[in-house]
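Supplementary Methods. Inverse-folding protocol.

Structures were first reduced to a discrete structure-token string of length 134. This string, shown here, constituted the complete conditioning input.
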């Protein structure tokens, strides 16, 4: 299935009509300022980080990896390094990046977890905490 031939385009249209459409209209999560700054950045917030967090966002489907809320203006997002002690050549790889809502991100970084929170969410937050301490 390729869009470069008439047969491929026909197959693609047929396939897409039977499956959920792709979220093609999502704007980039990186601002032009992010990209400009990343070119000169040293350390873990380099150009690779800004490029790979786009892939991680798509992989996570625009939802928090802990609580599952969809990101919006009301639900701010943070790109989290799962293990922040990895060497520079591995720290910004897509498997080491996870998108969390701001409140879950704070809890992962040792803010108190409110009582009454969903047990599954608490377990995920605690798993991320353990990975940070490794």
């Amino acid at each position: 299935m390729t869009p470069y031939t008439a047969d491929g385009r026909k197959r693609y249209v047929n396939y897409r009509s039977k499956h959920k459409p792709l979220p093609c209209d999502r704007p980039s999560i990186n601002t032009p300022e992010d990209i400009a700054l990343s070119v000169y950045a040293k350390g873990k917030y380099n150009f690779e980080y800004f490029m790979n967090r786009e892939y991680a966002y798509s992989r996570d489907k625009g939802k928090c990896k802990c609580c599952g809320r969809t990101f919006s203006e009301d639900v701010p997002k943070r790109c989290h390094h799962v293990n922040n002690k990895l060497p520079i050549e591995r720290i910004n790889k897509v498997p080491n990046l996870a998108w969390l809502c701001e409140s879950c991100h704070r809890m992962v970084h040792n803010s108190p977890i409110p009582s009454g929170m969903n047990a599954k969410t608490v377990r995920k937050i605690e798993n991320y905490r353990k990975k940070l301490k490794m």
